[in-house]
Amino acid sequence: MRMVDIIQAKRNGKTLTKEEINFFVEGYTNGTIPDYQASALLMAVYFKGMSAEETATLTEAMVASGETIDLSGIEGPKVDKHSTGGVGDKVTFIVGPLVASAGVPVAKMSGRGLGHTGGTLDKLEAIDGLEIEMSIDKFIEQVNKTKLAVAGQTGNLAPADKKLYALRDVTATVDSIPLIAGSIMSKKLASGANSIVLDVKTGSGAFMKSLEDSEALATEMVNIGKHLGRNTIAVISDMNQPLGYEIGNANEIKEAVEILQGKDVTDLRVISLTIAAHMIVLAGKYDTFDEAYKALEGNIENGSAFEMLRQMVIAQGGDVNQVDDLTKLPQASNTIEVKAPSAGFVTAIDAESVGIAAMYLGAGRATKEDDIDHSVGITLLKKVGDEVAEGETFAYLLSNTETAEDAEKKLLSAYTFGTEKPEERPLIHKIIK
């Protein structure tokens, strides 16, 4: 088999066979297929696409390129969630405890962030002493004991994906739906869950800006999961403005805790409950979504969901006092008010620009080597649809410098003010099963 023939076949719009896809993935992973030929195939896929079966086969080959995690030692069904990312997305810290409070084990492996704000692990490290690196045996032991663990990925999961993603990043082939879907699902499938709920964001702050593209990606990933024997559904949720009111690391942990303690931050609460309810239905805990949703609301009210978070923090060596008393979380030294330039309504917030403003403060990374400042971030006071007066404070910059001109300028540019109140957008656009 020759790589040039595989490239030519895809260039001409043909469907690749399982043998051809496996030959490519194995060869590129072990170095026998050079970057220039892999780049040519990726570009052919970018223009010609892949069938659902081709995409599933590509995903399966990427899973097989490395280790897979055996979670059979965890008692009960294993349900995972994945978010395509967004600004202010602290849903994992709410969903994990919610699902665990229903008696369903949550074995969550997450990563760090490069860009706007920290990733899940960076945010957790705002809690003093909390360990996110642990052996797979300890990981399984903790889940069996407390029903919940959130840790860094262990082992060499889907190395083909890591290598291919780096190549896609420099060959303008990142935004190909089959390649995105295969990349995401290869890591999820290698992580060992029986069922997966995907939170696919759509809007200005999402990777997929249009609802049409978000639906296409969600459908592709659900098809991959089903093809490879996993119960998979996707929730398409709105990311046309930041999720919740806090953007940063410690302040996102704070807001997640407040939700678990009963605070009604509507968008964050509804999206978290929706994802968690679908997860416990897939686990067989409830027959219907409505029953599951209502039960989880009850677990917020009775405190059992918050207690699950506390037990996870204790089990992973974190200072639980910082969860019990949120003023003990890292605090920035300065609070800078950002004021509205005119009266009216907030008609739009560019979530991506808000995230960049937070990065300017030190809440995220511009390069892999950058350190994250857990204490800094942004607190929004006004969101889309809210009325503001001229000169009214609509956000706070939480900074460790006395001025933050770049961040303030970026945040101001993220907001659009108008004279008419905009129509309310749905929080959940669609469920793909």
Please, how many domains? 3
Radius of gyration: 22 Å
Q: Give the overall pLDDT as a whole number.
A: 94
Secondary structure class reads alpha/beta
Low-confidence stretches: none
Let me know the number of strands. 13
The main β sheet shows up as: 4 strands, mixed
Listing every helix as H and every strand as E from the N terminus to the C terminus, the arrangement reads HHHHEHEHHEHHEHEEHHHHHEEHEEEHEE
Give the overall shape: globular
CATH architecture of the largest domain: 3-Layer(aba) Sandwich
Helix content: 40-55%
Separation of the first and last Cα atoms: 37 Å
Number of helical regions: 17
The CATH superfamily of the largest domain is Nucleoside phosphorylase/phosphoribosyltransferase catalytic domain
CATH topology of the largest domain: Pyrimidine Nucleoside Phosphorylase, Chain A, domain 2
The level 1 CATH classification of the largest domain is Alpha Beta
Placed side by side, the strands forming the largest sheet appear as 1-4-5-13
Tell me the strand percentage band: 15-25%
